[in-house]
Design brief:
There is one protein chain. By secondary structure, this protein is mainly α. The chain has 2 domains: about 1-160, no CATH class; about 250-390. It contains 10 helices and 5 strands. It has helices at about 1-35, 45-120, 130-160, 170-175, 180-190, 210-245, 250-265, 270-295, 300-325, 330-380, and strands spanning about 165, 200, 205-210, 385, 385-390. The strands form 2 sheets. Strands 1-3-2 form a 3-stranded antiparallel sheet. The protein has a two-stranded antiparallel sheet with strand order 4-5. Helix 1 packs antiparallel against helix 2 (about 45-120), helix 3 crosses helix 4 and helix 7 (about 250-265) packs antiparallel against helix 8 (about 270-295). The termini are far apart. The model has no long low-confidence stretch (mean pLDDT about 75).
Length: about 400
């Protein structure tokens, strides 16, 4: 109470000081005007009048400055008073809801106990008493639920106090609730006006206590989004620019690059079995290159094979060489090498299967050509039971 009286007296003193300054200034300006009307007093009177006017103006300005300084000095006390008043209101709301829940709950409990006693006495009217018990129990439950919400709201504001923002995770920790439930509750409370003057980030990640911090965050988010958009556009432009170059790369080029990679990875290998497997891959790759030179139509089938097996094989061989130094001391490194050696045999089988498939395609083409030739020769009467007839 004493603090409140002190603050009230400070505000009254500020107003009285400002009024005094305005009144004195007005009186001095009026005196100056009267003196200027007295022309017979000469220039000295006019100078004196102007001096009085300047003094009045300066006095009024000084009084205004004193009033503004006093108000500025009183701002922390006023802010603290508003803060205490706000939290007092939150606590009062929580206490009232808790008290209502307790009152309604006790009433429902008493009526329910009375109904039980009547039931034990064998009076069928105990059923009628359940209606008022339920009538008290429902608002008791509602008030209890709302009291929990009021308590969480107070915890939210306590967490936000003194900060420009809090993340939803921090608010969630303050009330010991899951993050998604906290975000839902914050959105609901904002619609109800429980966070007046506060702003929720567009991505729902944090709650801001002032507009300045909110605008700074949204500007930063917009800048990041614009930067990501530029990066995507640049990446798309680079991909588009490299598209024709990539399309011009033939399967033979892929096989040549794969062959060079095999030779580079085979050089440090000291294990004879592994080196032999890699050599088989080299021989198979050279055979495919030779085949494609004479059968360019097979490129489409080889391209599908090369798209996965070639880069994966080089990657596995590179890993084999990377862990080779630890293979003697590490069981994990040795296991990695064993697995890679095992898959090399499978890759060689895949190369052989591809070559057999290419040969089968050629065999089918040859068979079709032979069949067509035999048909034509037969129609021309140039083919007999023993083959071609010469006339």
């Amino acid at each position: 109470m004493a603090q409140k009286d002190k603050q009230q007296s400070t505000a009254d003193w500020e107003r009285e000081l400002e009024n005094l300054g305005r009144t004195l200034g007005k009186e001095m300006r009026g005196l100056g005007r009267e003196l200027r009307k007295s022309l017979d007093l000469g220039p000295d009177a006019r100078d004196f009048s102007n001096s009085l006017r300047d003094v009045a103006r300066e006095f009024s300005r000084a009084a205004g400055e004193v009033g503004r300084s006093a108000r500025k000095a009183a701002e922390p006390y006023q802010k603290e008073r508003r803060r205490k008043k706000f939290f007092k209101k939150l606590r009062s709301n929580y206490t009232n809801l808790k008290g209502c829940a307790l009152g309604f709950g006790l009433s429902a409990f008493v009526i329910a106990m009375a109904a039980m006693i009547v039931m034990l006495d064998g009076d069928p009217e105990w059923i009628i008493m359940l209606a008022p018990a339920a009538a008290f129990a429902v608002p008791a439950i509602v008030c209890k639920v709302k009291s929990y919400q009021a308590l969480r709201l107070m915890s939210y504001h306590q967490a936000l106090e003194g900060h420009s923002y809090c993340t939803i995770e921090e608010l969630s920790a303050a009330v010991d609730r899951p993050v998604y439930k906290t975000l839902q509750e914050v959105r609901t409370m904002m619609r109800q006006g429980s966070f007046e003057g506060m702003y929720l980030a567009p991505d729902g990640s944090r709650l801001f206590t002032n507009r300045t911090a909110y605008l700074a965050y949204t500007d930063a988010m917009d800048a990041q989004a614009a930067a990501r958009a530029r990066e995507q556009q640049e990446a798309a432009a680079r991909a588009q620019a490299s598209g024709p170059e990539k399309a011009a790369r033939t399967v033979s080029d892929e096989l040549q690059a794969f062959l060079a990679g095999l030779q580079a990875e085979k050089a440090p290998i000291t294990d004879g079995e592994v080196a032999a497997q890699v050599q088989r891959l080299e021989d198979a790759t050279r055979a495919l290159l030779t085949w494609l030179e004479g059968h360019p139509a097979s490129e489409k089938k080889v391209r599908r094979f090369a798209a996965y097996y070639l880069p994966t094989t080089l990657k596995l061989l590179h890993t084999y060489n990377e862990v080779d130094a630890q293979a003697d001391q590490s069981a994990v490194a040795a296991d990695i090498q064993r697995n890679i050696v095992g898959i090399l045999h499978t890759i060689n089988q895949a190369f052989s299967t591809l070559q057999d498939g290419l040969l089968q395609d050629t065999a089918l083409d040859v068979s079709a050509e032979i069949s067509a030739l035999e048909t034509v020769l037969t129609q021309e009467g140039l083919a007999g039971e023993d083959g071609l007839l010469l006339k």
